[in-house]
Design goal:
Structural class: alpha/beta
Largest sheet: 6 strands, mixed
CATH superfamily: Ribonuclease Z/Hydroxyacylglutathione hydrolase-like
Helix content: 10-25%
CATH topology: Metallo-beta-lactamase, Chain A
Strand content: 25-35%
CATH architecture: 4-Layer Sandwich
Number of domains: 1
Bound molecules: zinc ion
Order of helices and strands: EEEHEHHEHEEEEEEEHEEH
Length: 214
Amino acid sequence: MDNLIVKKLELGPIGTNAFLLWENKGSEAILIDAPPNCGEEISKVLKENDLTLSQIWLTHGHWDHMAGVKEVLSPGIKVIGHLADELMFNNPAVMSTFSIPGIDLQPIEITQWVEDGDQLDLWGRTTYVFHCPGHCPGNVAFYLKSEKICFVGDVIFAGSIGRTDLPGGDFASLEASIRNRIYTLPIDTELAVGHGPNTTVGDEMRENPYVRPL
Ligand SMILES: [Zn+2]
């Protein structure tokens, strides 16, 4: 197995983190989240490294994480998401009041629904899917144990947490998701977050003011 490259790209009108994963030049790549207007930058990185995009893993159905899918999609690319956000994938315009003007909100076709406990193969590495509702009903985290990294979407941030005032948000659920699924990971696990700088499980357990470990 070759080293995994994880490239973090801050993209779109409100600075959403997307992550492009690959092993070698000339190989396949997997994109985690697709912010609006991501197409040009993602295509550039793919081209520079001679990569072919094979899958898009969506942490959740908010427009700033998935409205760019259509810009990078081509036939055969697998698109992964959680069924609890089906309404937003099918009809992103329901969130248009929380979007910004000029963003084209087209339906996103999920080709593989995932649920809690599923395992996804990442070129020989196991990725565990954790359902972490609270910020929205269908936020999932993708935990790559072998690389000590967890892609969490908008569950938790460095010193903050996902907002729970949007439709489908619920603080008690988010608190339970963080305590049961994030704070139970090894403390040196890197949290690859949806906005801002990455952090670690240990740092958030020590310092996150919004959700304290029990
Ligand atoms: Zn979100």
